[in-house]
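Hey team,

Filing this mostly as a record. A colleague (T.K.) asked me to run one chain through the structure pipeline before their review meeting, and I want the input and output archived in the tracker in case anyone asks later how it was produced. No errors, nothing strange. Just documentation.

Input sequence:
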Amino acid sequence: MNTVSLVDVSTYLPRNRVPADYYAHFAGTDDLRENLMFRAPEYRHHAAPDQTNTDMVARACAGLVSRHGSDVLADVDILLTHSQLPDLPIMGAGGEIAHRLGMNPEWIIDVHNGGCASFVLMLKLARQMLAAGAGRTALIAVSQTCAGKVFDQTEVRTKAQSSVPGDGAAVGLLEVSDRSPILDVECRYYGEHAGDMTLAADPPRQWWQAGTGQGYVSFTEAKITQVLARGNRLVPEVASAVCDRIGVKSRDLDLLVTNQPNRVFLRNWNEALEVPRERHRDTFHQCGNLFGVGIPVNFEAAINDGQVTAGDTVMMAGFAHAGDFAGAAAVRWGGRP
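Output structure:
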């Protein structure tokens, strides 16, 4: 089997930077206002109402083109995409992204599951395909536009949940080489929790039905307690499984990057894995909960300021939705060109 490397990541955050005071101005009488799950970050970025997943992924690719040349996308054999909020409910953005970027890959796959850990899931899929001979290069793309579209609706932005999400996009470039090898990946599915992530509207309706009420995520105190317990357990479990297989103690990891639902999870994860706080990189107070974009955004932030250098072992880990999926991947970072 071929060795596969994650050779680069590139990210994009929308220009509209929204402070915490924006939501404080609209705050209503939500019973969950004081819940630890919804403590607001100082800032987050909002996609414009007319900004699509394809728009944002194209912007995220700019860094790859500048570093690897204008032909880097033309040579991609596999394109995997994940959109937290698809622009159309019946299809993903893969085909449009390929067209916009001038790509002609043999494989285009929209990966709808994976949620906040979708970057890890797509790492595994792309690695498996490239290792088996499906091509020489792959691009994985993840985008999130819920904050500026769903959570900024006039009725929804009064809810506690709306002050936490942020928007952004990220891409990862993989190739068959040993330059920056993906050491191991662990993905686990918990189908018994898949139905626990639900949407609601007032008055109640199905998401596809016409109606006057604006849709939002259905949270209760009991559901939040369950999600907190699952997330606290699942992320350390998958990260520890990868550590065991690559022969590295979690406390010796050079860098840990995770999704970032809130400060509670971030603190609990670095404590459970015994990773010093300074080696668990996050951008929560600058970007909020980026869903699936969080892992690559945090990784690129560490690359850009020199926190991670060539030869370092990087662990990426996260869980999705209400706990139906968790994944972790270890990379021996080879440095940028």
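Quick notes for T.K.: Residues 183-191+220-333 form a domain with the Peroxisomal Thiolase; Chain A, domain 1 fold (CATH 3.40.47.10). Residues 115 and 130 are 23 Å apart (CA to CA).
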